[in-house]
Design goal:
The chain is built from one helix and 13 strands. It is mostly beta strands and 187 residues long. The chain is elongated and about 125 Å long.
C-alpha cells in the first residue's frame, strides 16, 4: 500500500511541477544584405599566339584579280561577364584598329559568331559582318546581365576577312602590323 501511495504522490508531484514549468519560446534574427556591383569584363581567348596574318598573292592568270589569303588563322573567342545596374541599358562590344592604319586599298571585316558555351544570362548577338577601322564599330550587341563561360569554345568566335577595295592604291612589299582593340561598353 505504501508503494501505491508513493506512486500516487509522485504522479501528483509531477503534475504540479508540469503546471509550474513553462516552455520558453524565443526568436532571434540576422539581417542579410546583398550588394551586387555593376561589372563589365572582357577577354580574348585563343589557341596559338593570337596573331592573324593575311597575304595578297598575285593572280593565277594575267588579267585576273589578286587573291587575298589568310596565311595564319587562329581560333579567337571573346569571353565576357556583365552585371547591369537596375536602370542600365544593354551593352555592346565594339572593335577598332589601333597602333597603325590598315594598308591603303584594303578593308578589314570582323564577324562574331552567335554565342555558344557554358555561360548564362542575356548574352549578346552578332552584329554580322562589320568593316573595322580606326573608329569603334559594334561587333556584338544586346549584352545584358550574363557571362559566357571562360576559354576557347565559350562566347563568340571571331572570323576575319580582307577585301580589296582600291587595287590602284595597294603598294607592293608593304607590311603593316596593327592591333584590334575590343571594348565592352554601355549603350
Amino acid at each position: 500500500m505504501k508503494n501505491k501511495y508513493f506512486v500516487i504522490g509522485a504522479t501528483f508531484l509531477l503534475m504540479l511541477l508540469c503546471e509550474m514549468v513553462h516552455a520558453q519560446y524565443d526568436e532571434e534574427s540576422v539581417s542579410v544584405g546583398f550588394r551586387i556591383p555593376e561589372a563589365a569584363l572582357i577577354d580574348i581567348e585563343f589557341a596559338g599566339n593570337g596573331f592573324i596574318e593575311f597575304e595578297l598573292l598575285p593572280a593565277a592568270e594575267p588579267g585576273s584579280s589578286p587573291v587575298m589569303k589568310q596565311t595564319v588563322d587562329q581560333e579567337l573567342w571573346i569571353n565576357y561577364s556583365s552585371a547591369l545596374g537596375k536602370f542600365s541599358q544593354n551593352r555592346s562590344i565594339v572593335a577598332q584598329v589601333t597602333g597603325a592604319e590598315l594598308p591603303t586599298g584594303l578593308d578589314l571585316y570582323i564577324q562574331a559568331n552567335e554565342y555558344t558555351g557554358t555561360g548564362s544570362g542575356e548574352t549578346g548577338v552578332s552584329a554580322g559582318r562589320v568593316m573595322i577601322g580606326s573608329d569603334p564599330r559594334p561587333v556584338i550587341t544586346g549584352i545584358g546581365s550574363a557571362y559566357t563561360g571562360n576559354g576557347i569554345g565559350n562566347g563568340h568566335r571571331l572570323n576575319f576577312e580582307i577585301d580589296i577595295s582600291e587595287m590602284d592604291r595597294i603598294t607592293a612589299n608593304e607590311s603593316i602590323d596593327c592591333t584590334i582593340l575590343y571594348t565592352l561598353t554601355d549603350n
